[in-house]
Amino acid sequence: MKKKVHKKSVKINYFYNMIYQVLLLVMPLITAPYVARVLGAEGVGITGYTISIVSYFILFGSLGISVYGQREIAFYQDDAKEKGKIFFELVALKIIAMTIAMVLFWLLFARTGDYAMYYKILIIEMVANVFDITWFYQGIERFKKTALRNGIVKILSVIAIFVFVKHSSDINKFLYIHCFNALLSNLSLWINIKKYLDFPDKLNIFRHFKKTIFLFIPQIAIQVYTVLDKTMIGAILHNMTQVGYYEETQKIVKFSLIIVTSMGTAMLPRIANCFATNDHERIKEYIYKAFNFALLMSIPMTLGMIAIASKFVPSFFGEEFAPAAPLMSIMSVITIIISLNNVLGIQYLLPTRKEKYFTIAVICGAVTNFVLNYFLIQKFQAVGAAIATVIAETVVTAVEFYFVRKEFKFREVLKLSPKYFIAGTVMFIIVSLLINTTIFSRSITIVLSSGIGALVYGGMLLLLKDEFLLNTIKSVKKMVFKK
Hints:
Layout: H1 10-62, H2 65-75, H3 80-110, H4 116-130, H5 134-139, H6 143-164, H7 171-188, H8 209-224, H9 228-237, H10 240-276, H11 280-317, H12 325-331, H13 334-349, H14 355-380, H15 382-403, H16 410-414, H17 418-434, H18 442-463, H19 467-481
Helix pairs in contact: 1-3, 1-4, 1-6, 1-8, 1-9, 1-10, 2-3, 2-10, 3-4, 4-7, 6-7, 8-14, 9-10, 9-14, 10-11, 10-12, 10-13, 10-15, 11-12, 11-13, 11-17, 11-18, 12-15, 13-15, 14-15, 17-18
């Protein structure tokens, strides 16, 4: 029996996936200024540190199922029977792995210790992760469902934070809201799941184990240079304030990354489908467009964050976080770097079953990050971790470009960027001048400077007649005005 899955355009999938990804970060950003002022830098540091610890166990319990599951479901989008078999096998495998992870987490962290109370609460997040089947909907290209359902739950969690988190001692309440937000979001995805698949007659759970483990290795490496930074700052310095600085700065940079890298999740099933039908020319066309989009978006975001960092950080998070401004300037550079390695890794290597190269690249980055963190954190504190992250991401991108050098030339990618750097530089100069004016309040100045900067960047690209932007505008006009 086949249940035909309607395939939406990549642009629509990107739009909905970006909404979903933005919701994951925007809702915390809405509450970030409030939470930063209520819990303080140390309280924010404790939540960031404890969540970073539990994330390792969630990673272990998830294996490589999210990426593997999305890709495998994409291969069988129109085969409800095979989809059902893969789906229930992967869910069962995740239940087994996550149960083992929860037992280990309890024994090692949640029984006793300074933060045992917080770790006990975070076990709820591990349970929530068992029910996370976002990968299934991404595989069948139903991005709208995950975006809308998660959006409702995220809004409820924001309201809960403003209602219940009132004092610096309310770290436990904040963590409860964090965990139940994840649980409700994931449970909502199970509503009407039977609509998209058939129930299998029998399961062969462990046939996927080897393949998920192969994708699990790069996930571990990615975790090293996305979460280990906070863990190492806390472990080396024993200073939760520094962890707090890093935690809040990372939220801002991650927001810019989501806008750019959401294309990767939307493109993965489409490229996997092209690969399954041997349409290599279409894959190449998609990838070069993805590079163009990545540069178009990431360059102004990086330059814009550097321009406003000194005023934005103390205004947004409070004066207590003013020392974190240099962190934002340094970390913003990874927006460009990650946007490129996302195209190579998530949008090309994984869907075309070249996981080996992706794995090698992220392991190189992880090792680089760990070694540099060890030395730089001791000398430069959180700033050292930021420098290590930038260098590690550069290593990942360089290694990936080396492996795809026959398919995609780095110099061809560079040829896409001059207009964006020219427009971005003009924008940077204007924003840097505007941000230091004293006519308006600091908050209004930041908003006006950012808005004018965006207009200047777009206007410059129109003057430079950037082909990619002009084609995108034409496509949008057709979508809006078509009868």
